[in-house]
């Protein structure tokens, strides 16, 4: 009986340690976030703004983003908080998404912009071939666990081929 209890204790300890490592590793290995000066400079030529909120359908206590996103023709800048996690990607979508099911359904039509490696702010470069005006939503997605984090709509679709600003 003692061997079973000891084995169970070892397994539980290993499992808790493993889960703690999964949570802590992205935080420990995250690069420095952009400075306030870098963020201010990157937001000088903003064409669109949006807001990540934590109240979306598939966002939860462990998977959320809150803050402001600014989009220019060459950068996407975020100021706020993202729940830490591994393998986050930033996508652009032509439709607003707030569930994992919708993300998976629309993923073939989306474009992956960059990896997200910081959790309080970021500046990413928009690839030259990407027309940000052809999309209306920025999405943070965890590739490793196929987990929706959050989305921010920066344009509202009116009808096919036409858009207007969301904010």
Please describe the structure with a list of short key phrases separated by commas or semicolons:
167 residues, alpha+beta, 2 domains, four-stranded antiparallel sheet
Structure summarized in a few sentences:
It comes from Pseudoalteromonas aurantia. By secondary structure, the chain is an alpha+beta fold.
- Tell me the span between the first and last alpha carbons: 64 Å
What is the number of independent domains?
Answer: 2
In round numbers, the mean pLDDT is 87
Share of residues in helices:
10-25%
Tell me the Rg in angstroms: 19 Å
Strand order of the largest sheet: 1-2-3-6
Largest sheet: 4 strands, antiparallel
Number of strands: 10
Q: Please state the oligomeric state of the protein chains shown.
A: single chain
Spell the H/E element sequence.
Answer: HHEEEEHEEEEEE
Strand-pairing-aware structural class: alpha+beta
Shape descriptor: elongated
Regions with little confidence, pLDDT below 50 for 5+ residues: none
Strand content is 35-45%
InterPro entries: DM13_domain
Protein name: DM13 domain-containing protein
Domain DM13: 50-155
Explain what this protein looks like in three dimensions:
This protein has about 170 residues and is an alpha+beta fold. It folds into 2 domains: about 30 residues; about 130 residues. It is about 25% helix and about 35% strand. It has a 4-stranded antiparallel β-sheet, covered by helices on one side. A 4-stranded antiparallel β-sheet has the order 5-4-7-8, covered by helices on one side. Strands 9-10 form a two-stranded antiparallel sheet. The model has no long low-confidence stretch (mean pLDDT about 85).
């Amino acid at each position: 009986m003692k061997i079973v209890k000891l084995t169970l204790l070892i397994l539980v300890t290993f499992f808790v340690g493993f889960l703690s490592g999964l949570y802590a590793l992205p935080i420990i290995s995250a690069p420095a976030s952009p400075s306030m000066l870098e963020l201010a400079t990157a937001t000088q030529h903003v064409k669109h703004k949006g807001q990540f909120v934590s109240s979306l359908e598939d966002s939860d206590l462990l998977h959320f983003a809150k803050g402001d996103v600014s989009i220019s023709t060459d950068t996407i800048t975020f100021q706020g908080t993202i729940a830490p996690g591994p393998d986050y990607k930033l996508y652009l979508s032509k439709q607003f998404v707030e569930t994992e099911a919708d993300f998976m359904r629309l993923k073939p039509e989306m474009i992956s912009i960059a990896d997200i490696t910081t959790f309080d702010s970021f500046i990413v470069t928009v690839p030259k071939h990407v027309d940000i005006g052809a999309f209306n939503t920025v999405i943070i997605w965890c590739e490793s666990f196929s987990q929706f984090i959050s989305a921010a709509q920066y344009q509202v679709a009116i009808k096919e081929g036409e858009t207007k600003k969301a904010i």
